Amino acid sequence: MSKLYIVPTPIGNLDDMTFRAIRVLKEADLILAEDTRTSGKLLKHFEIATHMHSHHMHNEHKTVENVIARLKGGETIALISDAGTPAISDPGFLLTRACVENGIEVDCLPGATAFVPALVNSGLPNDKFIFEGFLPDKKGRQTRYLALAEETRTMILYVSPHKLLKTLAEFIQYFGADRPVSVSREISKLHEETIRGTAEEVLEHFEIKAPKGEIVVVVGGKK
User: Fold this and answer.
1) CA 212 – CA 119 distance, rounded (Å)
2) What pTM did the predictor assign?
């Protein structure tokens, strides 16, 4: 029977790829990739010869209908993103929803995603937490901060390197200088590191050492 597989890929170390993920990608009729050039390197490394089509945030609205038609025609399709689990701040939700609406089976494999190790490494409470992904750039950003300022659960955010200093300064403005913060960067890669401290201390660190790479920020909730 046709099925859509959601397949996580390594966020850094290629050894994080699972045996099952490799098998599914080899056996699928088609792989949908966020960037075929990036994924091409991954597939070559694991000797996966399955044909790829591009499926990313700029074309997913247009491609969903065709993918659904192929699945209804009996094909098995695997969806991957550049790194991590698709649909987590990456393309994937629209296609998954369309499959559910059309009675097509969806199977999401367990695997790499950046926010889980960042949360565990932070040392902040992880029994209850919220995942915010990327905050709005402009419209709605202040409104979101005002709401988060009252949040008592640990908060997880994705932040691009060139916005980290601004974001940490905003933490001080809306949460207070003493709010505990943990910044994990380059998770599972050669230069992986986690910097912990108050919002003020972490900001001072990255003012001296410019942030680089993929970044996950974990913030303690309001006491």
Assistant:
1) 19
2) 0.91
Q: Is the pLDDT of residue 138 over 90?
A: no
Distance between CA 10 and CA 216 in Å, rounded?
A: 16
For residue 1, what pLDDT band results from cuts at 50, 70 and 90?
A: low
Give the up-direction half-sphere exposure of residue 74: CA atoms within 13 A in the CB hemisphere: 0
CA dist list (Å): 172 to 49, 150, 164, 165, 220? 50, 14, 13, 11, 13
In the chain, the percentage of residues whose pLDDT exceeds 70 is 100
Can you tell me the distance from the alpha carbon of 95 to that of 81, in angstroms, rounded to the nearest whole number?
13
pLDDT in tens, 54-102: 998 888 888 899 999 999 999 999 999 999 999 998 889 999 999 999 9
User: Of 173, 175, 177, whose CA–CA distance to 204 is shortest?
Assistant: 177
Is residue 218 left, alpha or beta, with left meaning phi > 0 and alpha meaning psi from -120 to 50? beta
Q: Residue 168 corresponds to which tokens in the numbers above? A: 């940490």
Which is it for strands 215-219 and 154-158: parallel, antiparallel or unpaired? Answer: antiparallel
Contact, 202 vs 159, CB < 8 A?
Answer: no
Structural contact between residues 116 and 212, judged by C-beta atoms closer than 8 angstroms: no
